[in-house]
Task: structure prediction
Amino acid sequence: MKIAYAFRRSTVYPHEAKEGWNLQPEPALTNFLGKVREIGFDGIELGFEVFGGHNATKQSVSELQKMLSDSGTPCVSMRAGGVLCTPIVGEENRDRLFKSIEIAGWLGVGIVNSALSGVPRNKTLGPISPGRAIQPGSSQLASYQDFELTASILREAGNRAGEIGADVTVEVHQHAIADNSKSTLKLLEMTDSQHVYANPDLGNILWHYDEPEESSEQAIIALAPHSKYWHCKNLQRVHVPEHDRTYFLRVPLPDGDIDYRFAIHAMLDAGYEGYFALEGTQTGDHITKDARSVAYVRQILSEIKDGFSVIGV
Result:
């Protein structure tokens, strides 16, 4: 199993990135890519905007990929996303997804990942905020027509991805129509495409409601056979039942509430051959924190290979 870096913090001396998960200007970029390679990542995940969005051209994309590959950190997956079943915004996200597939073809990568989340459609439900009992954009609040429209767009996306030898993955995500294993599997069933699969982001299930809809173990066993890409992060959950609220602390993989030893076993047992895409930490020295996560994953993979790893230990 190869490890990709879905980095979530872009601040690297001397450049401070206040917004986004973008590549830094020089000299920060060279320093950053060098550390990514040194830590042991096999490549990085980049978003639609990094390549110029709708203005991206085959030449500009190819030039950036060459620079990344020469640094030992090629882009190995594209990140698109956004709700698809709403007027205007949904149409914009559809076009963004289709353009991302085109960029993936120029890059020569096999995965375009899409998180189907969006802004609240009903202000009475309150703002988007993890850890609440009611969540805008969730599968609980989605209509059957929402599923049908989303599935039809994903089917077309799968057709386009198939033409370039790639796959689209639906990320299990907060505030999205695919926010747990059941809703994700239902959406994949309705999409009925050989080029649309799941991304079983367990962190987003934990990070959604005040009480998780399912355990990480239940979710990964259900989704592993249907997965082609895998976002991984971990959190510590602090539940305040008196207020129907939960708060979360983003931590390196060994320190959180999700048992990734169990999850890695489940994915490998299901025949998973895709990337373990580490969603990095968002505060502090993310390089050091994320290096701990990579070492933890490689240790588990080594133990499994040697026959010494025990689930849950």
Summary: The first strand starts at residue 3 and ends at 6. The chain has nine helices and ten strands. The chain has a mean pLDDT of 94.
